[in-house]
């Protein structure tokens, strides 16, 4: 009976062996701007509005989170300010908030390296949007 079970043999697995119970959750989550990438990191779709008077979450749509940034869109200043602002709003370290896509575009994707859930992040963004 022992040699029949070949599922536990040691060999290269896709995803580097990180195939825990995270898989079933992933397909039903990307409803809205906050999602989880295949590696388990939380990502946020953002529509940036640089050159604003102050930093603020202006709108939460199903496509993206609109964020006004009080920095000019030149030499990556607005991108740095966006990451700083998000780290403050989401109560994460600055090093845990990184720009994933859209360095020269208003539509960006920010990746959160800290262990958190999309639900938590969405809740904090909603609270910040209500402050305006």
UniProtKB/TrEMBL annotation:
Residues 1-21 have a biased composition (Polar residues). Residues 1-31 are annotated as: Disordered. Signal peptide: none annotated. HAMAP family: UPF0235. InterPro entries: DUF167, YggU-like_sf. GO terms for cellular component: cytoplasm. This is RIKEN cDNA 3110040N11 gene. Belongs to the UPF0235 family. PANTHER family: UPF0235 PROTEIN C15ORF40.
């Amino acid at each position: 009976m022992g040699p029949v079970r070949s599922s536990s043999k040691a060999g290269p697995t896709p995803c580097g062996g990180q195939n825990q119970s995270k898989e079933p959750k992933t397909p039903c989550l990307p409803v809205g701007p906050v999602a989880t990438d295949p590696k388990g990191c939380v990502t946020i779709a953002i529509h940036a509005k640089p050159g604003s008077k102050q930093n603020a979450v202006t709108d939460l749509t199903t496509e993206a989170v609109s964020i006004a940034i009080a920095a000019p869109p030149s030499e990556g200043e607005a991108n740095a300010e966006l990451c700083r602002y998000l780290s403050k709003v989401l109560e994460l370290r600055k090093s845990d908030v990184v720009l994933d896509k859209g360095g020269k575009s208003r539509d960006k994707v920010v990746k959160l390296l800290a262990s958190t859930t999309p639900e938590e992040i969405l809740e904090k963004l909603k609270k910040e949007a209500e402050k305006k």
